[in-house]
Amino acid sequence: MKKLMGMLAMAGAVALVLTGCAAGDAGSASGGGADGSPIKVGFSQVGAESGWRSANTASLKDALSDANGFKMTFSDAQQKQENQIAAIRSFITQGVGAIVFAPVVETGWDDVLKEAKDANIPVILQDRAVDSDPSLYTTRVGDDFEKEGETAGKYVADTFNGKKANLVVLEGTTGSSAANDRTTGFNKAIAGTDINVLDSLTGNFTRAEGKTVMEGFLQKYGKTINVLFAQNDDMGLGALDAIKAAGLTPGKDIQIVTIDATKDGLTALSTGEFNYVVECNPLLGDKVADVVKKVVAGESVDKLYVADDQAFDQAQATVALPTRKY
Ligand code: AHR
């Protein structure tokens, strides 16, 4: 089984499972796509907060390239919702054929999504979700964050079953669906166990904040902490510095469970500093490009495409690393 998991991880392919069904919305006439002309796409990205995000941006840029029949305009929101709303409004004014965006937070999108709908421009969510009515966007291509959190929580519940566990949590960006759903899944998995949650604070998905928040946890709780759940690799990697500076050994004195499975995360796992890593596949570009082409051509698409994620222990990380794509 372990061998099979390793082989699957090495393949690094995004197997996307189809869920639900929705009719595609044809793009606006000036947005390209007719008679082989390039499709104009506006892409609003969250920012550059993590290794996962860099891999996701690269995947989208590769897939929505000129060579593949697109004219893509990229906008980095620097983790700010107001920047994303401004970018989407600018894409509407430009008359793009489709808008692709990774919503930094889950709420507050209704007005701008209605504006895109009124302009007959299809919106494709990639990565995170929104809480708006599904009629306001065409589809979402992303990962199952709740399942990721649940898988991480199951590891902690199984590992500390019957033992004393004092847990701290580094949460992702407050209000993001990635953080919300990972928290829900994790809490579901540890419900009814003796795991004692000492504290849970946001580290905003960055290494710098992961380090600072972990320093605070260590000052407050000292050596009583014996397990850390970091909702992404970067915060876990930042926490490593804080743990070492406190004279503790990561992976031994404090078990560390993270989500993403970037090369840096799997390296920390392989060398024993992390204990378990759940994958969140960022290579969503090809599926997004495929969906955009279909929608602009007026073909129907599903309402949700979910990437197939793995989980890694230390031995599986060592097997996967040489061919890891991100
Ligand atoms: O939305 C996906 C999350 O966003 C990734 O887990 C994290 O690394 C990124 O910042």
Question: What's the gist of this structure?
Answer:
Helix content is 40%, strand content 19%.
Keywords:
326 residues, alpha/beta, Rossmann fold, 2 domains, seven-stranded mixed sheet, 19% strand, binds alpha-L-arabinofuranose
Describe the structure.
- Strands 1-12-6-5-4-2-3 form a seven-stranded mixed β-sheet, with helices on both faces. It has a six-stranded mixed β-sheet with strand order 8-7-9-10-11-13, sandwiched between helices.
- The two termini are 24 Å apart.
- 40% of the residues lie in helices and 19% in strands.
- The longest helix is centred in the middle third of the chain and has 15 residues, at 145-159.
- Helix 1 runs parallel beside helix 11 and helix 7 crosses helix 8.
- It is elongated and about 65 Å long.
- It has two domains: 6-143 and 282-309, Response regulator (Rossmann fold, 3-Layer(aba) Sandwich); 145-279, Rossmann fold (3-Layer(aba) Sandwich), CATH 3.40.50.2300.
- The protein has 326 residues and is of the alpha/beta class.
- The structure holds alpha-L-arabinofuranose.
- Residues 49-50, 52-53, 127-128, 178, 205, 232, 234, 259-260, 280 line the site of alpha-L-arabinofuranose.
- This is LacI family transcriptional regulator.
